[in-house]
Amino acid sequence: MVSDHNMSKSAKILFVGDVVGGLGKRTLLGLLPGLRERLAPDFVIVNGENAAGGIGITPRIAEQIFDAGVDVITLGNHTYRQREIYSYLDEQERILRPANFLRSQPGHGWCVVARDEVRLGVVSLSGNLFMDAGRPAFAEADAALYALRDQTDHVLVDMHAEATSEKIGMGWHLDGRVTAVVGTHTHVPTADARVLPSGTAYVTDVGMTGPRGGVLGVKREQAIEAMRTKMPVRFETSSEDPWLNAVLITTADQPLRAVAIEQILEPAPGIS
Length: 272
Ligand SMILES: [Fe+2]
Ligand SMILES: [Fe+2]
Prior knowledge:
single chain; alpha/beta; 8-stranded mixed sheet; 6-stranded mixed sheet; 6 helices; globular; binds fe (ii) ion
C-alpha cells in the first residue's frame, strides 16, 4: 500500500517577475484575470520590489496586489526604500523580504500558504555578489528549509540576485530539496527554464512586469543620459510597451518536486 504521507495533490504556481511602477501594477492587475482563466494557477506569487514608482513598495500598493488574489509578495534590494512599509513588513505574514537580511531589519523571509490541502512554503533570498544582503544566502537557504520542514508540501524560493552564477549555484544547491528556485532582480527573462535532474524547477531570471520600452523599467532617455554624461539623473518609470513576465510551475504529486516550468511572456498593448 502506498502511504499517502508521501503524496500530495499536484498544483500550479504562477510566479510573476518584478512589478515595476504603476504601469507594472496595472499590467499585473489587468492581465491576471485572463491568466487565471487560461492557466488555472492554485497559487500566485509576485515579486513587488519595484512596485512603488520603480523603487520599493507601500502598504497601499501591497494591499491592491493582495486584493487581486495574489498569495505572496516577495521583495529584494529595494525593500526599504519606502519608510511606510517597515511596520507592514512585520505585521503582514504574506509579504517577504530576503531571509538573509540582518535579523534586526524589519520583516521576515518565509511564510506558508495553503489551498485545497496543498501547503506551499515561499522563501525570499538575496544574492551576496554585487548585492548588500547582511548574511550569506546559501547558509540561510538551509536554515529556512530546516524551519519549514514538516510544514509544507512544496517550497518555492525567490533568489533575488545580480550574478547568474550565484543563481545557478543556488538552483543546484537546492535541487531535490525544494519544488522551485526562481531568479529575479535583473528584469530580463533568461532562456534556461527547466526541471533540474532531482526535480527542482529552475530559471535564472523570470524577468519583469512593466515597460519594456525603457531600460529595465526606467525611461530610456533618462537612463541613456545617466550613462552618457556620468551625472546624476532623476529616474522615472517608462510608459512604453508593458509586458508581464512570469513562469508557471506544475508540481509533481510527490512533495518538493516539479514536473514542468513554462515561461509566460505576455504583452499588454491595451494597458497604459
Ligand atoms: Fe527589481
Ligand atoms: Fe532588485
